[in-house]
Write the structure tokens for this entry.
Amino acid sequence: MTSDKTDRGIINGFFPHRQPRGACAIWTAGPTLWAHVAHALGFSVRRIETPHKLFRQTMASFFPTVRSAAGSMRSTIRGVDIVFSDQVTVDALCRDPSTDWAGIHVPFIFSAAPGSLLHPPPGWRCITKSQIPHHAVGGSTTGCYDMGLLAPQELLRHPEILPDMPVQPWAPLDSLLNSVVSAAPLDSALLQHLSDHPPRIQGPAPIVHVRRLLHPRGLAPPNAGTLNVIAPCVFNVGKLGIRKLTSAELAGLADAPILLIEYCTKRLGSDGMAMLHECCSGHPSKVLLQGGDYLLSTFFRGGFGSNRNSSDTTVGNKQATVAHVKDSRFLYIHQARVLASHSTPEEELDLSALASVVKQEGQKADDDPVPTHMWDAMFLRSGVELSGQAGSLGLYNLMSKWNQAEVMITVPRASDPRDCNFSDTQLKDPVELPKWRWALLKIRSAALRYWRRRVTRSFFEHIHDSLPKAVRSRLNGGMDSWIEARGGRTWVLDRRKRRIEVFRPPFVWKEGARAIYKENWKLQREHSPNVGRTFEAAADCIYRAANSVWWDWTEGSALLFWRWPESHVLWARDGQPHYLIGDLPRFRKAQKKPRSEEEQKKVVEKFGKVRRKRYVDVGRVTSITHVFSVPKGRSDIRLVYNGTSSGLNDALWAPRFGLPMLEDTIRSLLPNYFQCDLDVGEMFLCFNLGMDLRPYAGVDITYMRNTSRATQEEWEKGRDRTWERWHRNFMGMKDSPYRSIQLMLMMKKLAYGKRTDQNNPYQWERVELNLPGSEDYDPTLPWIMKVRMDGHLACEIYVYVDDCRITGWSKLECWRAARRLSGILNFLGCQDAFRKRTEPVVEAGPWSGGVTSTAGMVLVTVTIEKWKKTRALVEELNQMIQEDSRKLPRKRLEEIRGFLNYVARTYKWMNPYIKGMHLTIDGWRKDRDMDGYRKFVNEAAIKQAEKDMAAGLEVDLGSFCFREEGEEEEEKIPEFVEVKSRLVSDVDALMRLTGGDTPATQHSRAREVLVGYLMGDASGDGFGNGIWDANGVEFEAGNWKEEWKRKSSNFRESHNLVTKVEALAKEGKLTDRELFIFTDNTTFEGTFYKGHSKTSKDITELILRLRCVERECGALIHVIHIAGTRMKMAGVDGLSRGDLLEGIMAGKNPWSTIPLNEDANARTNGRVEKWIRSWWADKSGRAWCEVGSDTVRYESAELNKLNPDDWFNLQEIKGHRLWIPPPAAMSTVMEVFNEDRIINPHLTHIFAVPRLMTHLWRKRLFKNADLQFYVSAGAPFWPRSMHEPLTIVVILPLAHVKNYRGPWIAKLTPKTRQLGEYLDAQFKNPSEYGRTECHDMESSVFDVWEDEHQWSRNLLSQFLHQQVNFPPVSSGLLRGMLPSLRGLPVSNSEDPRRGGRGRKRLRD
């Protein structure tokens, strides 16, 4: 095969995955390369018979199945199918009269000496293949070799015509030379001669000499080891030198495997070098491989290698797809999905009269009506399902009358919205409803009365339960003994003696009962903790509940704190404490008056809603904040609450937290699954501001209230103070998002309930891992799945601030899940914005920036309006650059960037191409270079500058004066900025990627069952790549042309992979497929995810081509960096040099080379966990975080290793977290970790993850890390055979400390950062610190760890014990003594006194 990047052709081929051919024995007179060749031929090496002891031991380390033979022939061939040998051994056996050939039935394949004659025993035949040119089988020398076959006559077949051996392109000598080996420099005359007269390659086997020097562009003669060679040398002028070949290069000429060369040279010393020399003094391995394959294929049935064409087994093969699904361990999930897609009686309903409610782009107005018909329609759908069950209410019969004429009932307008008889906010005017809908209205009215009563009673039950047992025993009687039923509707006479109907109270006090009740009440108040604040807050909650209607909290909401878990009661009642990093301000600058009377009216109206609901109320004010308005649309305004101008935000600190992305929701979706949306009403205002901060969050209401006594509403009368203060979290305060989301996520966890309850819509049985890297990976399914007992994926909740996305396998199940979440929110006193609720559909509306559709397949896109705007903004950017590249309006660029950032949440391929806007917008700052990048100065430069200053030299100090974090810019922010070079290329890329009138679709999952894995290497003078799937392995290899060699290695690596992907796409093998690309080049991986290379425009263009392929084919492409040693182990590094003896090329299971699905503990047999626990606790087992043995704890001090089931059940796990997940699972792990960190900041988290697939997790994890470092491969618990470093991250507890002003996290302390850097250096270079490097999982090496690696345990243990003195950590450990979420489950329906049947579903 020819190519424009090589002048000697490309070696390519395909071989299917195969079972081992059998066992073999190696019987030679000395060291040989037969063991690796036999493995490549498909044989398992069982025995090695040779007098060379070191060679036997070395082969045993490469082939675990090897056993040393006892020396006799029968013991050598026992249990093997073939023997690989040499001429000396076979000739000796034939000459030995004691050899029992009658009992031998295995063939011998041996390396034959040229011209030698072998006399086979009777009944045997000897066949010789003579004069096999080494260069004709892909080698680099001109030597010719013979191969022989000795076998019984009955085993052989005799072809009429002997086929020719296939000829492979030869590899030049320079493909084996090491350019970092010192060499004598060439004289100037020879350099000029080489420049003027480049050597010509002539003939099929050229040896090129220049002035008696061997030139590397040709082949090497057999005596190359004695010749001087012109070799590349990076240390010389002209990059060339003269030297002899090294031992490793001579081994390369004999095609010795790279791993064998490294093992002998680096681990065995001089003895290993001598053994390697003996191995390579015989036949080259390519001759052994091709010659042995020829003899097996020609004279035996079924030889190595097949003529099967890879095009016959493309991914589009339906039979392969069906077979894979049939044999999949996830078959039950596919079956459940198919069964769910069949029609059900529920789908036969004609609900055309009730319009569907789907979320649209934009925000609903505050006064939009609630789509009550949606609840009515879902009531009917639920009835159909219940109609076939025992105890049904006959709702199916009710449904059957849907299309018949029904009696319409006129429902009058409610005079008081709080009237339970007509508690529907829709009833502003009389309406006509069918009788069945009128009945639902009456049911809701009764349920509202019940709910109001339960709110009050539950509080008194809470007070009663919180009393000491001795006090409870002193209480007399109960409600039943104090009152009696009486009253109702009766007739009385009025003053004019007319009979009128009146309503008497249904209950009256019994005689003396009121006094007993007052005494009991007094007793409870005296013994209740913090009685004043508790009853004050409860009164506010009960008032708001009593004035609410079915669809709205008309007087605003308040958290019903007594219903929360015990650990969070105070937070729900008084708000969480605030983290302070400075003194609170005393800002008293008056509020500015609105610009016009019309604007002031709008301000009074909008701010009046907040004041009417008493989110802003009277109280002591020390400092105020400002409020200002901005235009909203053409005639409306939006109020902005400013916590910055007063200095309040400067005094606050908020922990970092992550929000779910649209791609996170994909794990709970399959084709034809349903989604609906639930919005939290007044999200921030639902949660209380901290009591200590309220005086510093005042508001000057001089111009934001109605001062006219005549027109004042009742609620405003008496509130005459000029200053009032915030009582709730408000938008514009720094920590409001964190505080609000913290409690919102708590409610989400409570909504999940008991996962084993079959009536719970969020039930699930187990977690299934379907990770890439496993042989049974199914790319049509999510990587991580919560699976129910019926085989469906569990319902899920995703919370993006106030927007909740609920997923479910059916319409009804999704609706039930949303209804349960709504019930928990209202049960705990949080608002559900019913007007924003949407119906469960397969094509849901926008959420978190994008739109997800499950109709037929799972796709992610954006709305047509957003797509049009995106294209318009990109075109606007292009025009702005063309008109004036030196004067771009910075403010407009920021607006465009903000919108594109939002769109990039949906399209992963867009995010890398927004970098140019960042550089252009901030490129004017003094700490940026000409291209807009931030300047960095390394420590060496700073130290050199200090030395120069000490010596009196002039130093440019300006280059070291960069802006510190949070430092104000001295320069004035410019109105216009200059275009940076990257913006131009980014806009060109965006123009290409956003082409087309219809929105681009992002495939979230492959449609085809087969998945491809591509691994390539091209850093040297050659290139190679191998791609495999469930059918087999396809490979190609070659040597670069001379002009290609002059290009950068980064470009050659990128080009090798990108052109292969483009070729696959052209052949149709990537359509709707998933492809994993593995590379040991960090530049290629980084550029793929960043979209741009700062140093190479060519690589940037290659990545853009790759992204275009991804879009056009609908493919999912992942680029994953792996260690160079793993590339060697996989055999692809050797493939770029024409080596076919290692890794997947030698028949190794390719999936075993990419452990994306294996965690660090499984790969090391538990050693990683053992090492971590050694510094978590001392030798006595006492953990560093133990507070006291006599202290009752609700959180355990133990470190809990989390398994996949625990990831989604963290609310039930007591104690600190140890995360050791597979790299491919880290995206979901980060999702659940973020939530757990927000809910339980007082817990420690330790991560141990191999450095693979880092684009999914490293950036997010490191932002939370207090201590982070890498354990380079070579430690006893993480040996060299692990290849990539092990990432260790420690995240310490965090809790509030009164009167403390920071820092709040240990990451900000210099000692922590220095410790991480020190650990990195120690693990990276163990030999520099006198420690032994561990190469594999030998148990004997690990046993000495206690002595040799005690240093790491001591350092980390000391670090953890020091953190006990760090106030936020020690406070977090003490908080673990409080009852946690596990202490009091809200969904406990077994205690009727604490909720009974009302706890399960309080509001529809």
